[in-house]
Amino acid sequence: MRPMTRRNVIALAGAAPLLAQTVPVKLGIDLFSIRSSGWTPFQYLDYCAAQKAKVVHFSEVRFIGSLEPENLRKVREYAAARGIEVEIGMKSICPTSKMFEAKEGTAEEQLTRMIGSAGIVGSKIVRCVLGSAEDRKPGPIEMHIEGMVKVLRNMRGRAMDAGVKIAIENHAGDMQGWELRNLIEAAGKDFVGACLDSGNPCWTLEDPHATLEALHPYVLTSHVRDSAVWRTPQGAAVSWVRMGDGNVNIDEYCRKYAALCPGRALSMECIVTGPRMFPYRDPKFWDAYRDVPAWNFERFAEIAERGKPFEIPRVERAQAAQREREDLEASLAHVKSVLGLQG
């Protein structure tokens, strides 16, 4: 594959609609999309089968119920009977992150459990994260990246022996795409790759298309959702919205993903929430973002410039589960239409 230069990206954008029709796409669902349902793993699988999902991403242990081998074997059998591929995940494996749960053991101990569980349930990957935007302040984020690289290098032999790869997500505003690329390269791309999220780049002042350009050679799986970005007097605001309601050109993003990451899951992580404010006109704001390249910020600023405020209807807690399913189903229908998928 040719290097992803700016010229190639422009050329690809014109060819992408045709490519998307010929490159197989495994449409999936990240269960965080319907996090309020409170179902058993088997109920989640039945629902996802009804939506014609080919991959179900258990992004957190709570969704799969437990890591007991008997439970994992039952989930594997239940999913296989419905023609569904299972992926599993966990939260932070960065010991210095504010998100890291030390009470669960060292990062290596937690990852060891997940790698073993992946083997039992039939997942080719373990998704995990560094942390969130909170780890950028006081920062620097490089400190956390170095700590996470050390953990991953310690786990190389175990992961390679198990045939399981570690999929690191660009998560909740922690890293831009190029930073995650550097982490993967430093840890070892033979067993570490990316869980590419299309919604989180805007929380790092990055155009999601720039994130895709940086990470597509390393993608193992993905989360996809749309974003609305607009200017405010203090800087910019970002809301996560249903697919097709935003202004980051998510349709073209999906077509590019299908062409650049053939055979990888395109899994909906539909989260409708916001706005989140980014007051970048305040000099103090930049204390957490001094590593952001000017050219990258300019692409984000251009998106905000052409955006308009997006109001998200308030949903009562009692209606949250139903609304999440409605948001997900509308987003799935949109993606299927964009990529010409059946069902």
Topology overview:
Blueprint: H1 6-22, E1 26-30, H2 41-50, E2 55-58, H3 61-64, H4 69-81, E3 85-92, H5 107-121, E4 125-129, H6 141-154, H7 156-162, E5 165-169, H8 177-187, E6 192-197, H9 208-215, E7 219-223, E8 226-232, E9 235-241, H10 250-260, E10 265-268, E11 273-278, H11 294-305, H12 320-339
Parallel strand pairs: 1-2, 1-10, 2-3, 3-4, 4-5, 5-6, 6-7
Antiparallel strand pairs: 8-9, 9-11
Helix pairs in contact: 1-10, 6-8, 8-9
Please give a handful of descriptors for the protein shown.
8-stranded parallel beta sheet; alpha/beta; TIM Barrel; globular; 3-stranded antiparallel beta sheet
Count of helical regions: 12
What share of the residues lie within helices?
Answer: 40-55%
CATH superfamily of the domain at 22-226 and 247-270: Divalent-metal-dependent TIM barrel enzymes
Which fold name fills CATH's third level, the topology of the domain at 22-226 and 247-270? TIM Barrel
Which CATH class of the domain at 22-226 and 247-270 applies here?
A: Alpha Beta
Give the low-confidence spans: 1-7, 9-22
Query: How does the helix and strand content classify structurally?
Result: alpha/beta
Instruction: Please identify the oligomeric state.
Output: single chain
- Strands ordered across the widest β-sheet: 7-6-5-4-3-2-1-10
Computed over alpha carbons, the radius of gyration is 19 Å
- Cα(first) to Cα(last) distance is 31 Å
Named at the architecture level, the CATH assignment of the domain at 22-226 and 247-270 is Alpha-Beta Barrel
How many beta-strand elements?
11
Major beta-sheet overview: 8 strands, parallel
The mean pLDDT is 93
N-to-C order of helices and strands? HEHEHHEHEHHEHEHEEEHEEHH
- Morphology call: globular
Q: In what range is the share of β-strand residues?
A: 15-25%
